[in-house]
Protein 1
Amino acid sequence: MPNYLLVDFGSTFTKLCAVDKDAEKIIGTSVHYTTVSEDISIGYNNALKLLYDKIGKKIEFDQVIACSSAAGGLKMAAIGLVEELTVEAAKRVCLGAGAKVDLVFSHHLTKNEVKKIIEEDIDIILLSGGSDGGNTENVIYNANLLGEMGVKVPIIYAGNKSAEDDIIDIIAKYEMNGFICDNVMPKINKLNPKCARKTIREIFLKQIIEAKGIKKIENEIDQVILPTPNAVLQAAKLLSEGYLNEKGLGDIVLVDIGGATTDMYSICYATSRSDVVVHGLEEPFAKRTVEGDLGMRYSAPGIVKSLSKQEIEFINNEKNIDIETEVNERYKNVHLLPHSERDKFIDQFLAEMCAYRAMNRHCGFIHEVITPMGKVFNQSGKDLTNVNYVIGTGGVLINSKNQKEILNQTTNILNDATQLRPKDPDFLVDQLYILAPMGLLAQKDPKLALKLMKENLKELN
Amino acid sequence: MYMLVGNKIIDYTLVNSGYNVINIGVLSSQEDFINAAIETDADLIMVSSLYGHGEIDCRGMRENALSQVLRIYYFMLGGNIVVGKQDFEETEAKIYRYGF
């Protein structure tokens, strides 16, 4: 019986999912702490033993493939010229490749900014700037400074093609670890992520997982093939689009509330309306945003940071809590699991806030402009009003007793006509943590991956 | 929408006259023009406006551009740029004072 073992080396937990290809079902799942700092295979083998215990016997696997966000995940710096254009294009490409974009810089780099890139252990730099045939001065300056300051991490050049020859010379002159790609923004507002994303993945597989001590697991498995967030994005895309005669779910949103970040994914076009003018940089069909200040533990203080004194007081009175103390406790104790009803209550509230705020930053906006020709609608970002499903994943959501209320926070609960939030979606929950594994399986057997997702995502009534 | 049609006509005319046109579309702000000029290393920023508020929308544009990049752009403005019937020469003088 041909079996797949799909492995997610997470930052905290290693998760396994075993699939029977012929029976077309999930045989079992297991979880154990990730042990990348000692030896990644320890955590993997412990999880494997737990899996065998659950299934009741040891089974053989034809293919064992993995994704990883261990050892800090894939950390990237995005550099461009203008914030709203090539910087934003570079950032979107990095996020779509499954990276955490820890540093974002525009215009001329400063020496302090380059020092930050070195000090914060960035894995890959994506350098962009200038549309094709446009500004070359900025990227040449930045490449030179990166070279002069001895930056040795991989640098992907994905900017103005007119500067390509100069960039190649700079890479050679300073013996940089450089790669050349198509421009991520070849024309104004036109996004071109393909080449850069492919190169990011190749560097991840050849260099990054080796550097993080993850590659040695390939002595025991077939291959680590994707960063975990990219596996989730692939799963979401498949679930939305369908495959051959297996129908997809149509337009969807996915929210993943984690300990350090809240990730949001939307799979749909920017708009289906003909009466709007869509502004700004082209929106990707499969879009991912990452809110590094919204998380249940490492980033818990970020949830209340943007609240005013009045709002904090209101929350404390309403909920009978001290929200600042609660988030600081969670920040200091990142492995805290909620045992008491009070802890669960606070976690529920924080998760709802993460979902609400993350959608604020992900969804598009619309406003009316009055012209002599009548009313015109000006839209920026994506219109999510007609998505069919909002899908939730992440520990706090999966373990919540009120999952619907967390997912409801992504909809237009305040009836703000300017926000293009999902209007009336159905809700699904990734109760078995299968999204990342199914993203991996999608690379080998998309039809089976889609079928298993549709069968195993839990519907909320 | 009429302004989209006008935008396309101007684009088509300029391209056929041999210009390299970066068309940023309709309902664009000063920032949209300046950002596009920076990325594309443009020489001329041309604003076409139909809805009567072009003159107001372009106030401070030259200074805005200069504050962001150390280079001079040429600016042009045309269309139905003021509300109602106003003296052409007065309007023209105002636009020249803005640096257009």
Protein 2
Amino acid sequence: MSESLLEVKELCTYFHTDAGEVKAVNGVSFTLEAGKILGIVGESGSGKSVTAYSIMQILADNGRIASGEILYKGQDVAKYNKNQLKGFRGKVCSIIFQDPMTSLNPVFTIGNQLEEAILLHTDKNKEEARERAIEILTLVGVNEPEKRVKQYPHELSGGMRQRVMIAMALVCEPDILIADEPTTALDVTIQAQILELMQELQKKLGMAIILVTHDLGVIADMCDEIIVMYGGRVCERGNAEDIFYHPKHEYTKGLLRSIPSITNAKQKLIPIAGTPINLLSMPKGCAFCSRCDAAMKICLTEIPEEMRLSETHLASCWLNFKAKMEEGGTGK
Amino acid sequence: MKRYVIKRIVLAIVTVFIISAITFFAMNAIPGGPFNSEKAPSPEVKAVLLERYNLDKPVVQQFGIYVLNVLKGDFGISLKTGRDISGTIMESFAISAKIGGMAVIVALILGLVLGSIAALMRNKLPDRLIVFISTLFTAVPSFVLATLLLLIFSIWLGWVQVWSATDTNYVLPVISLAMYPMAYITRLTKTSMLDALSQDYVRTAKAKGVTPWKVIFKHALRNALIPVITYVGPMTAYILTGSLVVESVFTIGGLGSKFVTSITNRDYPMIMATTIFLATLMVIMNLLSDIIYKVVDPRINFD
């Protein structure tokens, strides 16, 4: 195994609200290796975006990392001082957001916003920064980059703006790129282009990517490793084959059943029953138990541990322990 | 842009013309006239005066004559003082504009700074203090504030001289004029700053590694300024032309007090000239704030 670039250990992120403490992320761990693509899937409120924001330290004012570590090359990002953080954000680790319409500042030109990042993290002067901005725009496939740098965000289409966002994130050649639902706000045709672009750039520049999405199709053909999240916890992790062909968590199975299939269009979709859990009052046991058809007594009271099912595949579901016990193994 | 400005200037001329017409006819509809004071002149003298100032003709004809004169640059002379009106207006406007200009600057700087502080330290002590101050000054009428300031600082403490034509101390009049707009700008800035700070582009800027101060003053403030500009344009016109209340309390001979005395005196040419002047200034300030709008917010498209 190659050396891990980013290691998230037992990350807990809570938000303070008037209604109480919202436990958005409850003990998420994963490692990201240099040059790999890690996918995080889950529904709204599963904590996938908050995990991403925690790494970047751009949580809303009422959010905080309650416990856990985010280790970049062995150093805890959460304990960085102002200067270290400045060197981390945008230079080592960059992020692109879901909505390119609102993520660019409407009152500054594209060039100005790109150059800001360049001037901040390199010794380049203004002219060199402009050259670099044009260069990176060319790289992400923006046509007429010389003209674009003088334009304002509202003069560009959504896909074009997302390309600018990607350019902005990559302008200092970071080690890690976090993509927080990069295609959700875009047309389907543009989605494919943006994903292709990200893959292509990853090959060219060799950065590691954390791809946060709720679109399983996106994850399937891009990611080296996939994490399925529910209720702020990781319920299953593995490579695409593990997750898509041998799901070992009831939530993952439910997710896969709810994907429309192109070969069998008449088949009825099976939604996951119930509603997402209320993060204000987390169940004592498995977060998914109230919606799980196969829930057992233990699921209500105890949080399942992660169980290694193969070299690459891990799942946190009591059913796996049960199966192992029935096999006569040494489950819990 | 050019076309837009030309269009606006044409519209402005029409606006000012309509305002003058309404004022002219309304003014003539008020009972009484310029020569109906206690020491009324004899009927013969009055007839001569009325003829001299065209007041014996039908109102519509009077209006026609007036407009023609104005187009020639002649605003007439005051029926009360006999002095040239353009000169009088310029003189009193100079005083009002000086106090008003200082008040606008004070209101704008304090308002933006306090509003930003309140937004950044939301729900902390400085914010609560600022909210209290801005609520207070929005609620207290300027005549109460002006009188209180005069009483406390000039009479009781004796720190500031009472205003007189020879000894002009601008501190108290400027404060009395500036406090209300300052309070308003503070509240406006706070709201729009909070809104701007919660926008996605602020998060993007943070993620780029931009320092917190630069995030606030480059990315958020520029966007937060947009609603403030809407208010500041007309406010500036309003303050520059002088406040009757403040000018009365401090006995400053500015445009505001001239305007009101001209009405009570039925000084027709003076009323008309001040109205046209105020209307023109208001229209210009509105146009200016729209142009500044365009500079601050590139999304605004005039054409």
Protein 3
Amino acid sequence: MGLIEASGVSVDLGGRRILQSVDFSIERGEIVTVVGPNGSGKSTFIRSLIGAIGLSAGSVRRAPGLVVGYVPQRLSLDATMPLTVARFLNLPVLRNAREVKTMLEHVGVGGLGGRQMSALSGGQFQRVLLSRALLSKPDILMLDEPTQSLDQPGTAAFYRLIETVRQEVGCAVLMVSHDLHVVMSASDRVLCINGHVCCEGTPTVVSAAPEYRALFGSGTQGAFALYQHEHNHHHPESEGTAVDA
Amino acid sequence: MLDDFLVRAGLAGLGLAVAAGPLGCFVVWRRMAYFGDATAHAAILGVSLSLAFSVSVFAGVLLVTTVMAFTVSGLAGRTFHMDTLLGVAAHGALAIGLVAFALTARNGLDLEGYLFGEILAVGKQDLAVIWAGALAVLALIGWRWQALLTATLDQDLAFASGLRPRREQLVLTVALALLVAVAIKVVGALLITAMLIIPAAAARPFSRTPEAMAIIAAFIGAASALGGLYASFVWDTPTGPTIVAAAFVAFLLSGVVTVARGRQLT
């Protein structure tokens, strides 16, 4: 079976149907991107997969012992709670201190272990969230619009990082995104959601699908092509732009 | 040693402080102040019921505060007007408790003792109950510490890690009910929330981790209990309120230190 299998998932929130009969499954090592306009239920979908939301209908089955590395959109971190980066990485499971240090260096925020979470920049914060997810050696990495608070170079750098770590860890990746043109060609499969599954398939299939065009217009087609172009050769100077804003 | 009422009072205050410090941190982090008030005020109703049915006050208070804590905890998240609802519950419980007390209390029974505590009248048996309750609260929080922190930080993060935030919320609910039942003798129903929130808030500027904040809060609470006890002895003031006043002074000092440190930095 897949790592996670959802069948006929419907979710109601505040008396409104957010998701209607969504079928979904993801295999080991697969990269799936979920796209959809704002308010289309993308976040609700990913939250229903981790069990954070009660289903009105359908079922979600996770493989036994499945380890999920979850990177939320943001943290509702209350200013009254003091929390260093290192302490955060030890929640809820205590980790080896050296492992934590190495992981922080690996995702490009080495030496920030003693920093308060509230003092991090947007880019640093996302990388810390990612490092926490990776420390659990996940079977699947789930990211809910991880680059929302990042500028374009920061976003590109973050996606490159995700691709790198995915190749190392070999985990599946399920990513919710609105950065269609950046994400899509790295994905094995794209799921286009607007309350229900509009269309699904390889990036090329989805970007050509009439349902997708209807939601996003054909304008993204050009951006998509642009990204593929970028992907074919390396820009060493763009590395410098990975620095957080 | 325990024959001295001042020693017993001091030990009672310490018992409350060590449990209220860590629990109070969660009350602050999760913005449960009104939740604490609702639970604490329900204690007065518990006292009245205990008197009416001639059962131990501790048992009556524990029962009613538990029911109250679970009720308001169950309401949480179901409505967008949580603040208002908790305010209604907190003050409604207090008013009904006061009315019930008037109806059930026998002559000469002192309501003030339950509202503001009577730490100087703590007996050996009370002391045992207070410390047993305080240690139970500490054990409960300590047992779930990592899960509680994760769930407090972010519910989805907790779900993804295989935790159930709802269960962690229940742990805090039970701990709070237990603490109220323990604390009513020490500072009284009206000031219990103060002993939860003020030491934790005073500890915040000096803390870099949740653990540090919990421990510092316990120390500030303990110092306030002993300092307040001493001050009330010297100035002949009501002890419960004096202890809370001492905690308040600690909070002010903490604020002054923060501001002074901020000036140095800039």
Protein 4
Amino acid sequence: MEDNEDNIMKIIIVGCGKVGYAVAKALAAEQQDVVVIDRSAERIENVTNTVDVMGVVGNGASFKVQSEAGVQNADILIAVTESDEVNLLCCMIARKTGRSHTIARVSDPVYMSEIPYIKKELGLAMTLNPEAATAGDITRLCKMPAAIEIDTFVKGHVEILKVEIPEGCFLHHQTISDVMRGFREAVLICAVERGDEVIIPQGDFMLLSGDRIAIVGNQKSSAEFVKKMGIPGLGRVRSAILVGAGKISEYVAKAMIRQGIHVKVFDSDREKCEHFSVEVPEAVVIHADASKPEVLSEEGLERADAFATLTSSDELNVLLSLYAKKYSKCKVVTMVNHSNYAGVTKALDIGSVMSLQNITTEYIVQYVRAMQNSQGSNVETLYRIMDNKVDALEFVIGENCPICNIPLQDLHVKQDILVSCINHLGKIEIANGQSVVQEGDTVVVVTTREGLRDIMDMVGK
Amino acid sequence: MNIPVVVYILGRVMQVEGAFMLLPAFVGLLYKETAGLSFLLVGGIEFLAGLLIILKKPENKSFFAKEGFVTVSLSWILLAIIGALPYVLNGDIPHYLDALFETVSGFTTTGASILGSVEALNQCSKFWRCFSNWIGGMGVLVFVLSILPLAGAQNIYLMKAESPGPTVGKLVPKVKSTAANLYKIYCGMTLIEVVLLLLGGLDGFSAITMSFATAGTGGFGILNSSCLEYSPYVQVVITIFMILFAVNFSVYYLLLTKRFRQAFGCEEMRWFFAIIIVAVIAITLNVWDMFDGVGEAVRHVAFTVGSLMTSTGFSTVDYNMWPEFSKTILLMLMFVGACAGSTGGGMKVSRMVIYLKSVKKMIEQYIHPRSIKIVKFEGKQVEHEVVRGINMFLITYIFLFAVSVLLISFDNFGFTTNFSAVAATINNTGPGLEMVGPSGNYAMFSPLSKMVLAFDMLAGRLEIFPLLLLFAPTTYKR
């Protein structure tokens, strides 16, 4: 831990709401030096008590407060308050006073088309739109309703699907090598979640029904595999119900409508409904309290193919999703923003669980790691899957790398580490024992271990 | 409560104290004293015992405020209990209770002694006394935090429980680096003092031990006459360093990182210096005719004011001979104490300033009942919770004070002696007035009184609540 002391990033986070807290926690876990700024002393007290970061109480857009947090020497400033404008102002001031890279959360759909302009003019390193990113994930899930979670890799060429093995599936009581032998398409089961535990399986690992498995493959082969698993009752989505007419719903609705899905949106706030119908005229906007069961049945919950609860209240979302699961066979997506409840929500039958923070932290951790790259570690990109319990790291194989041209089965890869796929100059190969890595390839390594910084860290005892 | 984690950290603390005891053992070797063996023995056994304890790593690493408080209190009690053993073994302090009092006084940087003659001690015991001042000054757990990787982010609770002051902040984002930085500054400043004292003609042993006792604002000297026999130069150096070590250490960190404006803008430090200057002027005016010339008067008054306000407790003159007005000021200074986040004791300047500001606010609110007024300190709003916390501190402090005075009154000494004895121990100062003044000591108190005073010293160093928590039954309920 000590030997990369100089490689530690000094990071300032402005805004310590749910997103800011999650980001601070993730970056502190990466051993970075984190300073959090928030107006609320209570929030700062909370974050400094539970995460190893320093707190500054004040307005993050103030020059004085930023200097107190050490903006002059900071490497990165991340502004993730609720307000886009404050975030942009924070970044602008940080740009002018220090040399830090700046990342702003900008999530109002109004700014969507102007992002490139804003980025260029304000010199931002990155803008984050957690709402749009979450909406993208939700839309992708609706295309493949059997999956609980979908991530894409290697510039979208590879997908990781998380699915649950249903009762009576042919995978039950089979070892992974048996499954692979019986299936022709190139897919790989790279992680198994059983209860609270996440396992990187070996070939002799026995699958059971109820396990949630992560499958790596290209779109076609993994779709084939999932179809064969026979998860009941989930076909193509043609109509969807969204609860809550906020920003996420707006992004989701727009994307779904583009795909020809019929969208109904519920909200109990008249103004929000009106705004929504202006922005997304194709959607059916219903001004009603969705927490009343008769309202949902009246508008056809039983006939909908997908149901997403996207209000700002976690409790309402969970409750509505439980209700929908009980009275309908549709694909259910639930927004739960309190990341501390991840352990509880997993036990509930509420379909796919989404959270703004997970996506945001993933992007930011990716960015920070990439920045550290130039200073040592050769992780190209990082993805976090399975509720952030598994890291998927992309490495570039350099010249004279000792593992070149040796079949993977002959390398002594450590436990809890798995090479999932190899990118030979644009040709993706799903890894198996005979696969060989060559110079110039990129490989995606899946692991539950932390602190993997070099491809050579994965071999040995 | 998560007992395995608490035990694990106690094991670490034992290792650290065991290792620290090798230094007096080494001193014993240098002076060819057999007494040094007692330190080697106790330290060695303690280190091994600590090693055995930490072999079993706790599975559940959850660690919160409660565990933080309990760990810190238990650590300090354990330190004193074990730290007292060598004195008894080598015969320097034959009674264990006395040795315990002396050790508590050392670690809490009080400097109250039961010894009639310090000079009669072995060199290694003298060294251990002063060294315990130094260890206790910055805190043992802060030291443990700075060198060992512990449970996680919640370490902040350990630091909060051990570091003095109404609010405890970090210098840098990580607890570990904050603790390491504090110790770097602490060691650096101690070293500078050692060098300056050597330049003043002190021998190596005196320079090092006196620096230790000054750095921790402890006040254990190595001569019976405390600092009377040292040259004026040495006295001035000690005066300056007593005061420097009582300043909030974040000021030094700001200076080191070249943030001068912020450093010199520290409100608490300004109040601290202002109080010292006013006190020195007032007392000098009162006592100048007792000295040969104003220069000498200022030197002795500044030394005494610095010594008592920073809770060090060295002396160059017997201020018991001074007029009542001066003695009263000195007694008041003991209560004010040093800055938060320093090695000094007392109630802390920041608390006093916030009390004054709250009173001002209250008065204004009586005049304009609907006005909204906020207490500001260091340019920032003081949260209501913090104000409430320090108010509760004052109330608890007064209660503890009253009960202590009551308990030691059984010994039937004068009120000034009793009152100042409690004041000097609860504020970690050391010498009080009359019988416990600079020329007296605490040997005449009964065993009960000694225990009460030892408790007060610990309570004062840990700012009361961690220690009281130890006696609250709810702490141990599931």
